[in-house]
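hey
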């Protein structure tokens, strides 16, 4: 289905990854992003969230060499979106994490990642805009749960529009009106 601003991913976690990746891309005109093993990623959605398509590298089907490809692109990109086709083997995981630390690359994955500093999950997604059998999908409200290690050990939850009516991410008006603090996520390398 098409919503204003383009074709949006159906899974809230993909929308969350795009929204997170768009932050660094908006902050600097030299930030490159890679999307690995995400063949159904909507380019219109990526653009709507603020990712410049001219600085987005796509590797649709990396196969069993996904960790090597991720490692190579970590040297060229500040942010890597990854939907690993296979769980990482312990040695692969060590090499990849060392590479991410060395390059300062932020890894955003669609699946739980061993040793991740932060874990963001989505739930309670609801769409708005449809009437009684008619209308257009306009936005999706999602609960985003954050838990992690160290300073991020205290779990938090926030409601976000993923996407909002313009195609990007925002805080729902009700959350702003009630004084609910938005979830602030600082991206960091694994």
């Amino acid at each position: 289905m098409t919503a204003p601003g383009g074709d949006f991913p159906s899974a809230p976690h993909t929308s969350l990854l795009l929204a997170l990746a768009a932050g660094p891309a908006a902050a600097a005109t030299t930030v490159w992003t890679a999307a690995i093993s995400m063949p159904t990623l909507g380019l219109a959605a990526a653009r709507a969230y603020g990712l410049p398509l001219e600085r987005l590298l796509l590797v649709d089907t990396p196969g069993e060499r996904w960790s090597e490809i991720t490692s190579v692109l970590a040297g060229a990109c500040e942010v890597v979106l990854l939907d690993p086709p296979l769980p990482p083997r312990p040695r692969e995981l060590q090499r990849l994490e060392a590479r991410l630390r060395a390059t300062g690359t932020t890894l955003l994955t669609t699946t739980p990642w061993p040793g991740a500093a932060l874990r963001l999950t989505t739930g309670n997604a609801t769409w708005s805009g449809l009437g009684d059998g008619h209308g257009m999908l306009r936005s999706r409200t999602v609960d985003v749960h954050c838990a992690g290690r160290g300073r991020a050990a205290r779990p938090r939850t926030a409601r976000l529009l993923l996407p909002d009516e313009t195609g990007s991410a925002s805080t729902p008006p009700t959350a702003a009106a009630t004084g609910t603090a938005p979830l602030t996520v600082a991206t960091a390398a694994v």
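Strands lie at 33-36, 56-59, 79-82, 106-109, 118-130, 135-148, 156-161. The longest strand covers residues 135-148.
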